[in-house]
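User: quick one, fold this
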Amino acid sequence: MAYAEKLVKSWRACWRVPGKKTPEKESGFPSEKAALEYAQEREVEARRRGRRTRSSHTLTVEDYAHTWYAGLDLELGSMRGYKGILENHIVPTWGDWLLRDLADADVEFVEWIRRLRAAGYSESRIRAIRGRFSTMCSDAVAHGLLYRNPAAQQRSRGRAAPRRVAAARDREKKVTTSPLGALLIAERAAVLTGRDDEFTMLITKFYTGLRWGELIGIEKTLLSRDRLQVDWQLAEEGSQGMARTPPKRGSIRPIDLPGFLADLLEEQAERVVHPKVDGRAKWCPCGRNLSPEHRHEPGIHVFSGLGRHHWAHSTFLYQYWAPAALGRYYPGDKRKERLVYVDEPPEGGQIGPWDRTRRRASRWDAKKTTPDPAVACWVPIQPGMRRQHLLRHSHRTLLEELRTEDPLTDERMGHANSSIQARYSHVTPGMRRRLCKDLSAAWEAALKDRARILGTESPVPTLDRLLDAHRPSHSGSGSRSAPDTGHRPIRLHAV
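Assistant:
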């Protein structure tokens, strides 16, 4: 029979479980009623299970965290995220605590959150850490190892000002770009890599809104003339390699392709070069440490990395995306950050908009007291666009500007909408045709603006061919570049 015992400053809950002579006990309750209710619940749970309930008297947070993590059944990326938070934040701080002592650790928990904020962690990261800790404590309560969750936060509690300020700053970071901005960024990326693949890849991301893993995971067999079927993504799993998994939250979907994008992807599928592998190899070497269910055959993807099977997110971000969009390598890194410099042109020559130094080392030579003769640098095309994921935000914004219907927008972005309106709204062929027509018009307008601002020549062969339609057709023109306006040759202003 469950009962409560009076202690000096609190109450203790006591209950019996099958198979054990001595009762289970849990202390720290503020009142007799709370202790008795908890004991009764634990006794009913123990009888239902028909076995002895695990004691929390000697169970540490670290031991429970390992057991809790082993019982999770999540996607590979989510499991990696949970493991990182446990190993880097929860266990180092709370690992030596007894699990039962967490129930009254409200003050210590608040101080921990303050230390994380003072250490410079972003609000989104702190929310993730708090969320994982709260989930773990909630499961411990459900298993009878805690009587309350110290990390549970009631709605409308706490200071509202910091949350609203953080939300406003987060919105400011969500920078988007126009079709012309995406075109210029893609052109710069192709100039940096020296091939057309990255031009097509970034144009595809802007006009489809694919996530990064879905973009590099486009398979040739899922690409048709007017539609791209998104069934898989390539997820980076650290030292294990690239895992072939379903898209985030199972967002399998078709994406309608406008004619120009279908042509670009068809050419890319024929042009792509994958690193050579053993002819007898069944699997791509990119996932040699993964189980067969997460591996894929070699050479099945539309895009490949530069000298590697697939692009690593961080490599492309800092070495190609950042200099293309922001004009800086490794922005924010005090040790590696540098501008994209342009060397002094030959005598009598002019600086072209795509000129740059091809040396990867720092502009400062340790043996010299003066820097190399860099006379210019690339300006940002879209200031603040620090991640290629913002092209997905830009695509969503473009759909809003084109007044695309909500059902088609949700389908294209891979978002689930459980509202009543979404249940009774459906995508029609007319919606698909209208959207493809509008996207094609946005593309043609971007090409026209590109020709007007920077001329009708491009160092990227694919774009140079696409600009043919905007070159003067009358005889005697003799020039394929923009007319002389009297301004400096470099005209790469923010778009």
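User: anything notable?
Assistant: The longest strand covers residues 24-29.
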